[in-house]
Amino acid sequence: MGSSVKKGVGKPTLYKTAMKRKNVMLDLETIETLKALGGGNLSEGIRKAAEQSVHWTLPMCSVCGESVARKSGMCEDCEMLARQSQ
Ligand SMILES: [Zn+2]
Hints:
Blueprint: H1 28-37, H2 42-57, H3 76-84
Helix pairs in contact: 1-2
């Protein structure tokens, strides 16, 4: 038999950080929800859920809604624009 096995065909590296394999305990409903979120891929769904929860937790800029608010309640760009228009 030929041993010419094709490896890594058409799978671009999307993530710069190394992935770690973890065993997780999930109920069926959570698995289905996360799978749907990840387009059929459970790991992708978990990453997306984590990403979204970070965005939800962070305060948002009162002008553009970006999740990088500072003391002023605005992001750096909007704060600068507000200062210029004064
Ligand atoms: Zn902003």
